[in-house]
Write a structure and sequence with these properties.
220 residues, alpha/beta, eight-stranded parallel β-sheet, 42% helix, binds pyridoxal-5'-phosphate
Length: 220
Amino acid sequence: MREELMSLMEEVRRANARLIAVSKTRTPEEIKRAYDLGLRDFGENRVQELLGKYEQLPADIHWHLIGHLQKNKVKYIAPFIACIHSVDSLDLLKVIDKEGFKNQRIIPVLLQIKIAEEETKYGLDEPGAEDILASYVKGAFPHVRIVGLMGMATFTEDLGKVRLEFRKLARFLELVKKKHPDYAGEWSELSMGMSSDFEAALEEGSTMVRIGTLIFGPRD
Ligand SMILES: *Cc1c(COP(=O)(O)O)cnc(C)c1O
């Protein structure tokens, strides 16, 4: 794992982006090995699994929730989560804000935008995201900090298509920053790119790539 990981880390760093190691289905031992090689950001898509690992692994890990999040599970991760990438509804954001208040912290989140063609993918459409951002800038969610956008491209070999979807997400971020220039600095993150498409994502402006398979090998 070592050599490949070092060059992946270097490639991501050169692009001024952050590497989120997607550790779903991996054991705490596998995660600890990656940690020992210098990784500190890990992404999980299920709350239960995340909690088990959070308890066993070093406290200076930044845990990212990258999968669909149910409102009734927010309370479990609110005390420690570094970033929730998958905010896909106003109701979910309200719950995160409430749990942020209870924990006396401001929880960083990304709005997940639907950029893929597939019907099954979660995510907001652009008007839905704009509505949320408009309430946010009025101060509706004081215990949440929206730091940018997340997107998942269509699952296809067609990297040209994937690239256009990433570009669309980057353009949408530019658009909302223009509309709300006071937040242009705060809305700086673009979470896009996985093992199969992270290079295109970096070229299109990704600041956080979420990579599992390339780091840990295939999942069963
Ligand atoms: C599993 C997953 C990834 C990582 O996928 P790989 O192909 O293993 O790199 C990235 N983002 C999300 C939301 C995921 O669920």
